[in-house]
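Bug report (template v2)

What were you trying to do?
Predict the complex of my protein with S-adenosyl-L-homocysteine.

What happened?
Run completed; filing so the output is reviewed.

Input:
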Amino acid sequence: MKTVLFNLNDKELEQFVADLNLPRFRAKQIREWLNRGAPDFSVMKNLPEDLRDKLSEIAETLPLKIVKKLESADNQTTKFLLELVDGEQIECVLMRTTYGNSVCVSSQAGCAMGCKFCASTLLGLKRNLTVNEMFAQILVAQWELRGDKFRDIKPNGDANNGDVSHIVVMGTGEPLQNTENVIGFLERANNELNISWRRITVSTCGIVPGINELNKWGRPINLAISLHAPTDELRSQIMPINNKYKLHEVLDAAFAFSDTHNRQLMIEYILLGQKDENGSVMLYNANEDYANKLVELMRGHNVMVNLIPWNTVDERDFASISGNAVHRFQDILIKNGIHTRIRRERGADIGSACGQLRLKNSKDNKK
Ligand code: SAH
């Protein structure tokens, strides 16, 4: 198997270079290219061509390769299908926004959580991602933004200079089933790329011990809870994890986190409909009664409720609800003083909106 140079530390990279009878400064040059996210050796212009060819034969730059790159029609969203060295595939999404460049990172290949509305879990869990595999997703996005036009990385990334400035761990997988590596990855992103804690968000379906671990870790990141239902009865129907950690336990742990760090808690709530036998769409978790129940859960807490219109997943038995129904639900929250917004979905046209990752491509690949 080819050596992945990004996985070598400085000493190991120097040894690798020495074993090829190259001068030591080559290690430094290669490291600079790796830190920029160079996808292969052909771009390393300050290396002689025969060396670049030689390196391509025996090594890889990053621990993942771009298999496919999709650009949304508005050019604001780029989705990458990435292949890891063991052949597993993951996805990562770059979103260019007015406040900066945000990367949605996957924490696992596949997912074990089994949420009934989500596409990421349909093929089950393959494995946890390593720190390097998560970090490399940022580098892929960074290379897309600025290629070899490398400048010094400024505090908080500089969106205008084309840096990655925000990270959301909201791709495939459940980050709090891979907490140690997620923490290792975020420490590095903060340390090496200067991405500040408040520009980092970790989203979980509600693994209570994991939330407590984040709390103990003590960094003031943003926490997002995928809630999607305001009662245990309803939540257990669509999120199997709720049989293990009940709604109130999850919210208590999450409120404790946001209180400790004085951060607003993000609540994610997909508005789901279901078709009856005549084909008309009935509200599932989105009627007035559930809106009022959600208000009671949120009252008195520092929260932002993100209402997410459901993105179609063919295999899943839900339906999108009308814009009017979305607004009726939101109005109840607003009237009761709960901060809320409707999430603008990005990249639905390229299958990169929430819950759509990986599956489409793995189906295409089988063809
Ligand atoms: N496992 C973590 C990280 C994934 S985040 C978590 O559950 O939070 C992905 C977000 O997209 C979650 O809020 C998830 O509930 C939501 N999502 C999943 N399927 C979706 C769909 N079909 N439409 C809209 N949002 C969806």
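What did the reviewer find?
Residues 279 and 342 are 26 Å apart (CA to CA). Residues 113, 117-118, 170, 174, 203-205, 226, 268, 270, 308, 310-311, 313, 354-355 surround S-adenosyl-L-homocysteine (CB under 6 Å).
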